[in-house]
């Protein structure tokens, strides 16, 4: 039986707090953890499939033009080679489901350097890789492709534009004003597991084991790209070694494996090399951002301006939503916000680790530090003074607001010295030491979700959905929610995810996973409780379940009368989305050391205080925050995609040259979780967590660099050369 629930009103009953099993929110270790660390959890490429051929993609070596001739004969006689697939549908746009057409005869259009144009399939991976290197490709290059966002044509994202009052006048009238421009570099998702797919056809039915975040959406994309009915496709993604946005959509390995397997009549595996993951999977756009802040003498904002330039390929819809939290984080009645997109020929720009805030907040929060200095106000105090009562643009109330609490709690826990600040106050040997802070904000997203819950007479339960767990803890929190609602220890709740044979979940992205799928499981369990309550002769809200029995000793098995009780929960976000501005909030505090001679920055300690609604699992929630803070260290200090200005190719396409923070770069991090219930965010009063930890953290480090050594930098990442360019005497 299906149960539909659409949330139109806040739910402040906090029903989950009245349950008796007492497992929700507890630091339960991940249920799949043992399988992962012992290597028995199969990832996409590891699925045992008999008689599997191996495919290797060939990518373009021009930024714009056509591949006019692909010389299949040049490799078909090489050892083990089975086929060369150059179907147009495996190129990026078709692979993203935007070109549902029969393959064109003739040249393949190339839009960026590194774009997949063909797949070579052989008996072994080594044979396929060798042949791929030898595949003859002729190009007609269309020279002069725009590669630099600064000089390319731009388009305004009109729905982002805000003009309210008169910012220029507010700047002229301000006691303190700041007008600064920041840049951030492009970022790679850099998930540890490379993109991989194994495709297998049985007649006209296709099964693909792949590494994907959103099966509910990926199945339609794949159906479109192949021209196959969704009913004939099964996608399986039980374990995903990180997505970070790069697996939100399908990419070429999935389409290529499916096309090749159909042509050859046997299973085909395609795994991207690390270099290919960098070259042809989407990037986060670089940004240029101008911040204008106008304030009274006590630091109250009267004007707020944020204009950003980002980039994408011509015709692509996505524009890094840099202004996302700028629309509501601080007050200021005179406002000017604008987002421009430059059209350039680099690989598609898309969602990477907290799209929007991860690039926008480092600029905004560094500009706030400049204002605090000018106004002679403690940076924490400056932020406290500018928290708006309601959304300053739309006038909507906030669903909940924890920024003030996070700022205060974080400052206390960190030992923040409040008061006006001066740089270069502390030196130890060759190191300058300093501290800095920043606010965090990340919009709360939520999506439609379905999950089936089966309660069995033996006192166990099963949760089934095509939702994924991309390392976030979904398996575990769903076992906890169902366990709490049904009065079962989480160990007796089996959770089966990542298979489109199950009801459609929301997928993992935009930090919406836990609140969305958690709510679907909640809805299903509530329906099961109603049934049990009727059988036990009590009202559902009086039914107390613990350890498989009611509080008056009736066993669940007896109530079920020997039969399974099955409910499919369907959660749908309702009108409530238009009634509130919902966001997670937080505050970062960092202490850094900057070497006076080399300009090297080391983060010595860092603390994040976050409010994101109900904490479903204290351990996995904390881990999410630790990951987010770690990413913000990358944004601040090392992560940068570097493109060759001559031909547009990505220069640093491995994890040695594109440096994400490693163990040695990350100090002991501290996380303070500010507990709250947000009944307008979701029926389970939870908001997203995953990305909040990176939204603004880089600015805390930038501000600490300034406090340490006096280098006020405006370009991320703040590499030693940039620090030295300011501090070198
Ligand atoms: Mo996320 S970057 O929306 O997976």
Structural write-up:
With 729 residues, the chain is of the alpha+beta class. It has three domains: 2-42 and 446-577, Aldehyde Oxidoreductase, domain 4, CATH 3.30.365; 44-144 and 198-280, Aldehyde oxidase/xanthine dehydrogenase, molybdopterin binding domain (Aldehyde Oxidoreductase, domain 4, 2-Layer Sandwich); 287-444 and 582-726, Aldehyde oxidase/xanthine dehydrogenase, molybdopterin binding domain (Aldehyde Oxidoreductase, domain 4), CATH 3.30.365.10. The strands form seven sheets. The chain has a seven-stranded mixed beta sheet with strand order 4-6-2-15-12-13-14, with helices on both faces. Strands 8, 9, 10, 17, 18 and 19 form a six-stranded mixed beta sheet that branches. A five-stranded mixed beta sheet has the order 1-27-22-23-24. The structure holds dioxothiomolybdenum(VI) ion. Dioxothiomolybdenum(VI) ion (MOS) binds next to loops.
- Poorly predicted runs of 5 or more residues: 94-105
CATH superfamily of the largest domain: Aldehyde oxidase/xanthine dehydrogenase, molybdopterin binding domain
As for the CATH topology of the largest domain, it is: Aldehyde Oxidoreductase, domain 4
The helical percent reads: 25-40%
- Major beta sheet, strand line-up: 4-6-2-15-12-13-14
Number of helix segments?
18
CATH secondary-structure class of the largest domain: Alpha Beta
C-alpha Rg (nearest Å):
27 Å
Which tags fit this structure?
Aldehyde Oxidoreductase, domain 4; binds dioxothiomolybdenum(VI) ion; 729 residues; 18 helices; seven-stranded mixed beta sheet; alpha+beta
């Amino acid at each position: 039986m299906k149960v539909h629930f659409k949330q139109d009103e806040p739910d402040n009953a906090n029903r989950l707090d009245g349950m008796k099993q007492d497992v929700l929110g507890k630091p339960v270790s991940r249920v799949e953890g043992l399988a992962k660390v012992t290597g028995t959890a199969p990832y996409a490429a590891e699925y045992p499939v008999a008689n599997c051929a191996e495919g290797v993609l060939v990518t373009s070596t021009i930024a714009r033009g056509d591949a006019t001739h692909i010389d299949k004969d040049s490799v078909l006689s090489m050892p083990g080679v089975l086929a060369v697939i150059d179907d147009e549908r495996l190129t990026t746009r078709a692979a993203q489901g935007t070109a549902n057409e029969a393959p064109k005869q003739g040249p393949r259009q190339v839009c960026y350097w590194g774009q997949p144009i063909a797949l070579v399939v052989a008996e072994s991976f080594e044979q396929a890789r060798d042949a791929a290197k030898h595949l003859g490709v002729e190009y007609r290059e269309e020279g002069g492709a725009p590669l630099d966002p600064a000089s390319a044509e731009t388009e305004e994202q009109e729905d982002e534009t805000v003009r309210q009052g008169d910012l220029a006048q507010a700047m002229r009238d301000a006691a303190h004003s700041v007008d600064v421009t920041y840049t951030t570099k492009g970022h790679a998702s850099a998930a540890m597991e490379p993109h991989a797919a194994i495709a297998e056809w049985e007649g006209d039915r296709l099964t693909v084991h792949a590494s994907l975040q959103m099966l509910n959406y990926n199945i339609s994309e794949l159906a479109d790209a192949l021209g196959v009915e969704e009913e004939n496709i099964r996608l399986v993604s039980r374990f995903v070694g990180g997505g970070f946005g790069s697996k939100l959509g399908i990419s070429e390995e999935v389409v290529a494996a499916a096309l090749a397997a159909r042509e050859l009549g046997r299973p085909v595996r395609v795994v991207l090399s690390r270099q290919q993951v960098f070259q042809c999977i989407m990037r986060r756009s670089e940004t240029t951002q101008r911040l204008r802040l106008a304030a009274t003498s006590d630091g109250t904002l009267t004007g707020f301006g944020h204009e950003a330039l980002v980039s994408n390929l011509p015709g692509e819809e996505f524009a890094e939503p840099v202004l996302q939290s700028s629309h509501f984080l601080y007050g200021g009645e005179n406002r000017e916000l604008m987002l421009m997109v430059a059209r350039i020929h680099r690989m598609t720009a898309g969602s990477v680790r907290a799209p929007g805030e991860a690039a926008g907040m480092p600029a905004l929060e560094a500009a706030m530090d400049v204002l605090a200095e000018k106004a002679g106000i403690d940076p924490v105090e400056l932020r406290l003074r500018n928290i708006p009562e309601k959304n300053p643009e739309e006038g909507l109330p906030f669903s909940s607001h924890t920024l003030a609490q996070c700022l205060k709690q974080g400052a206390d826990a960190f030992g923040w010295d409040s008061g006006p600040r001066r740089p270069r106050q502390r030196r130890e040997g060759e190191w300058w030491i300093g501290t800095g802070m920043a606010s965090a904000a990340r919009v709360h997203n939520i999506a439609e979700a379905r999950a089936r819950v089966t309660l069995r007479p033996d006192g166990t339960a099963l949760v089934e959905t095509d939702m994924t767990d991309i390392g976030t803890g979904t398996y575990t929190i769903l076992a906890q929610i169902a366990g709490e609602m049904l009065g079962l220890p989480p160990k007796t709740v089996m959770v089966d995810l990542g298979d489109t044979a199950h009801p459609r979940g929301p997928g993992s992205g935009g930090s919406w996973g836990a609140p969305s799928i958690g709510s679907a499981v909640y809805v299903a369990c509530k329906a099961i409780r109603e049934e049990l309550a009727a059988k036990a002769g009590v009202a559902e809200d009086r039914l107390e379940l613990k350890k498989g029995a009611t509080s008056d000793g009736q066993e669940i098995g007896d109530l079920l009368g020997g039969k399974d009780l099955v409910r499919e929960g369907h959660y749908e976000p309702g009108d409530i989305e238009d009634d509130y501005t919902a966001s997670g909030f937080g505050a970062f505090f960092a202490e850094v050391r900057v070497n006076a001679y080399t300009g090297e920055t080391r983060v010595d300690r860092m603390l994040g205080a976050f409010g994101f609604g109900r904490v479903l699992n204290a351990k996995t929630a904390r881990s999410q925050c630790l990951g987010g803070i770690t990413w913000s260290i990358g944004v601040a200090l090392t992560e940068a995609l570097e493109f060759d200005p001559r031909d547009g190719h990505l220069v640093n396409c491995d994890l040695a040259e594109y440096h994400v923070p490693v163990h040695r770069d990350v100090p002991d991090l501290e996380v303070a979780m500010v507990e709250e219930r947000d009944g307008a965010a979701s029926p389970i009063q939870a908001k997203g967590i995953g990305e909040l930890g990176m939204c603004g953290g880089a600015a805390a480090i930038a501000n600490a660099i300034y406090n340490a050594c006096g280098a006020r930098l405006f370009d991320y990442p703040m590499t030693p050369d940039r620090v030295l360019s300011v501090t070198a005497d």
